[in-house]
# Entry
Amino acid sequence: MSSKEKTWKEISIAGVPSKSSIGFLTGDWKTYMPVRDLEKCTLCLTCVMLCPEGAIAFLPEKNKIKIDLGFCKGCGICANECPTKAITMKMPEEEEE
Amino acid sequence: MTTQEWKFTAKDIATKPDLFMSGHRACAGCAPVTVLRLIMKATRGPTIVTQATGCMEIVGSIYPYTSWAVPWLHTAFENAAANASGIEAAIKIMRKKGKIKDEHIDVIALAGDGGTVDIGLQALSGAMERGHDFLFVLYDNEGYMNTGIQRSSSTPIGASTTTSPAGTVIPGKLEKKKPITEIMLAHEIEYVATATPYYWKDLITKVRKGLEVEGPAFLHVFAPCPRGWRSDPAKSMEYSKLSVETCVFPIWEAVNGKRQLSTPSKVISLAPQKKKPVKAYLEGQGRFRHLFTPQNSHILSEIQRTTDERWEKLLQKCASGAT
Amino acid sequence: MAMNGDEAVAYAVKQCDVDVVAAYPITPQTIIVEKFSEYVANGEVQTQYVCTESEHSAMTACLAAGATGARTFTASASAGLALMHEMLYVTSGSRVPVVMAIANRALSAPLNIHGDHSDSMAERDSGWIQLYAENAQEAYDSIIQAFKIGEDINVSLPVIVGIDGFTLSHTLERVDTLPDEVLRQFVGQRQYPLVVTHEGKTVPFKLDPANPMTMGPNALQNYYFEFKRQQEEGMKNAYKKIQDVNCEYAKLSGRSYGNGLIDPYKLDDAEIAIVVLGSTAGTLKVIVDQLRQEGIKAGVLRIRAFRPFPVDDIKNALKNVKVVAVMDKSMSPGGLGAAVFNEVRNALYDQSTRPIVVNYIFGLGGRDSSPRDLRKVFEDIIKIARTGQVEKTVNYLGLRE
# Structure
């Protein structure tokens, strides 16, 4: 929560939310992060479909997958379901090594 | 329903923007939010979503944030179907009177097992009888997960929940899972189907089919909850798959009461050796851990027996055409 | 026309271009839904009529339809209203101006289908505007006014119009109606307050795929309070709006009800007065006339708007009165008197000189109070005025003790 909270006069009635949740990053929830082996990826797009966060995108113009770590909670579903095991879950420190 | 099947590729779906947006507060590994994402991929035009109180309602609507890119209404726990009835009635009459644009708007009602099979059953039955044009999707994680994993009538036999805990005297829930789709079929609505997110293509197809029905349609989606099931968050989709492979949750659809197995379950009916024992599905889920002790092994057998029984019954109905 | 209160309500709804009616039958409101069903079946209204499977779903459907932009109406009573309880709060909190007729009836147990105010008194904290009618004419007029009051964008609150069960709902009275076109113009098209959505757009408050918004979110400890305060502001604006609409409607119909909030009768020089809601006021006014002929300066204050509670108007109306008896058709077991008594006494408390206020609980479960019984209340308070002594603050009129 960054901005100051508003008074009853400043907000819309009936609780209509004024912000889209794409402004609320959940990436700091993760312990493990997905690491990709690009050579193994066959672009089956299973990870894109099954990611609960919608954090995995397919970029058609670049013909590649992109994982948005800003939303990824590190659940590991993508790694578990990838048919070619192109994704592994690692601790961020591990990856830096 | 249209006779032409909607053809789509993974790329078509992947490049369609998420109408249930990222930044929601669901647990890591939550399958129900995947279900929501996939449902919204199947929309075909202007859509209004209404939801019952529950995990999926909360995670996407914590003021001042919202994860919903479509008009969305939540009122209370037991009335998603009544909400949909009101919205649909309003659209109908306002179009007729020229108060709004004369275009079709799809109405989707979403609720968990609590808000559908227990407290939501009355409103659901009423809406189905009145024949409103909407799709009701039940995301079934087999318990009141949002309030702390209490049992619902959709919780399966033997499961340990916080209100049916596996104690020294009583080993978890003793009652069978309420067969909600049978109840829906008894309402004689045009489309009733089951799905699970691992088979995402099947799920999306069925949502679209449900939307195309001019009248009420019901979709029962099985969605694992790692928190409530005490299972590995990474395996939520694996359990979704296992539920079908063990026939714990067969997937099928019924058009005007005539049932047909969907491919993943059909494969098993044609090659019964592929059917996995329920143990493969149950082990690894903390809520069933107590069943793997000698004094509770009879419950394991009971689970296998009732699973087989329901599977056989389903096969018979598919073959005979009886509802 | 000769109509009973229920029929008058149904006729008013027919004329107000209501989009959706979602209702469930319960005595003594059944005539409203039955009459309306006839209008629908004969193509006399352009309304989507939803026969829901319970009152809870009826209120839900009205709320949802209203959230989608429709003008909605429903009716209930007693147990049905109680069943909707949860949804009444949701409707007012969602700022959707549903209009609901309540054929006031006793709450169980024991089961009783007859008239008293316990059903709507139990909803006084629900955030709904509450108007009470004295006769079938006022029932008709108040329903029409209710749409205009609730839909005002600075009010945006749902409205209950209470009519006494059986006494008003089922009794034939003369009701003068206005022509369809006149009323259609009076209520006009529904207007919507503006809200800022998550897309950053400022748009009309309704479910519209062209301008998506989320309604009914989860507001945590850091915001819930502010939304409740907004509702209070709606009530404050309703206080004025009820009076304005009463005036406007008087120009059309020639009928007005006091200033819209209270209907005072011979209070200017009254020494003693009874405060009451609903049809009992009619009988009391006749008794006041009799007492006046006997030289007793009596008056009646009928409160028309119970919510928002017209504090200043009540203070002003009773300023010269020495003893006030507040008559309540409901009870609050364990409390000091019943709802209206508490609110009136509270309103008068801050004054340096204030009248003696006593409570008469009466009519529970539809028990009739004869003119003789009602006259006894006046006689009791005359005695208090003369002696300054109050025997009992809370009394039960017509109870066999």
